[in-house]
Amino acid sequence: MNKDLYQQIQYCIERGKVDRNSPYPPDMKGQDGAVELTQQAIAAGFPPQDILLKALMVGMKNIGDRFGCGEAFIPDLMISAKAMTAATAILRPLFQSDVGFQKGTFIIGTVAGDLHDIGKNIVKMIMEGAGWRVIDLGTNVSTEKFLETLKQNPQASIGLSALLTTTMVNMERTTNEIKQLSPSTIVVIGGAPVTDNFRQKIGADAYFPSPHLLPDYLNKRLSSAMI
Questions:
Q1: What tens digit of pLDDT does each residue of 121-142 get?
Q2: Residue ranges per domain, the chain?
Q3: pTM summary value
């Protein structure tokens, strides 16, 4: 049953079926969408992180893969993103941490020139759920804004997001300037076009194709630094 519901949510994300009242796609008119199915999964007791990783993110990966193969187009990505945003809005309160202390501060933003925020918002939810204080700088964030925020929070780690290959150069510039200002600051990067080879090239500390690995990585890095 779990698998069936996850697959239904995946399909709604991939097709861009937001909710029952959404007229798109026409062949799914009147059917439950990502919103209703996510609510059903929560009501059934499915772990929020599993809903995110096994359903929502898989659906976005599927549409991304189809786009990469020329089987889907920009409008398809946009409507899928709308369904993803609606579903993650339901999950977000469940990722709010009930931990009595903050494990650390994490500054995150989408780099200059890039207005995409779905990936960034997912990382934010996961980090908050893991007990971190997250400073979300939003999208189209300049290098100067990252540096200014780091100066105000010198013990923070930083996450840089990019969805466009054309903005990855700004990810490189920001990483370089952060490291010049504070070599010990941990910089992690992510986004659809990002690879670990690129991470090594620009001198960032880590890249994760799946964001749920990030909290453990930072916890271990910070624990090692305190020894």
A1: 888 888 887 778 999 999 999 9
A2: 2-95, 105-226
A3: 0.73
